[in-house]
Structures are given as C-alpha cells and as structure tokens.
Amino acid sequence: MKVFYLHRKEDESGISGTGRIAQGIVFDNGKVALTWLSEHPTVTVYDNLGEVRAIHGHSGKTEVLMEPDWKRAYNEVAEVARTVDLAQVIVDKLSDGSEAKQLLEPTSG
To answer: DSSP secondary-structure letter at 5?
Structure first.
C-alpha cells in the first residue's frame, strides 16, 4: 500500500480549501480509496490513481503527493547496516597515529 495526499494550490469552487485537502491509499491491486480532510470526510473508491487525478486534479491546481514508504526505507537501511562493520569504517577514516585510531584498532599481539 502507498499513502498519498491531495494538495490543492487553488480552490476554484471555494469548498475544499487549499493545502492538504484529502488523504488516500493506493492498494497493491491499484485500487484507490480517498477521504476528504473536511467536515464531510466521505470515502470514495477509484479504479486507479489516474482517475483521481482526472477527477480532482483541476488542470494542475491539485497534485498527488506520495508519502515515503517508511517501512521499506527502514528495511533497506537495516539490510545494509547488517553488512557494515561501523567500527572499522570509523577506524579507516581516522588519520594514522591519531589517539582515537589507536584506541579503536584491535591490538596485534
């Protein structure tokens, strides 16, 4: 699922206002549910995001702003973090002979 907002730059009708006016979800099958952030928060289901843009876009005065997929981003970072030895990265960046490098480097003995 992906979350998005409708952001309206100009309100021609004077009804929905400007800024974030609606919140929606794009389901994995492409269907879209949209609810208004107003005193009448009805929910409408659309076949796809293209329909939402066609009906509510108002010739570019309203845009669809996708929210980042935070869970996916976290999992990508976590996957990379498992493969990195952070202490070694730090040691490699320190100048030779620095006290910090001497403290962090494993002693050979």
So the answer is: E
For 57, residues 6+ apart whose C-beta sits below 8 A from its C-beta are 63
**In the chain, domain spans:** 2-67, 71-104
Please compute the mean of the pLDDT values over residues 35-49 and round it to a whole number. 93
The model carries a pTM of 0.64
Rounded to whole angstroms, the Cα distance separating 106 from 109 reads 9
Closest CA to 89 of 74, 105, 77: 105
- Say how far apart CA 91 and CA 80 lie, in whole Å: 19
d(CA 62, CA 73): 27
- The residue-averaged pLDDT of 79-106 equals 87
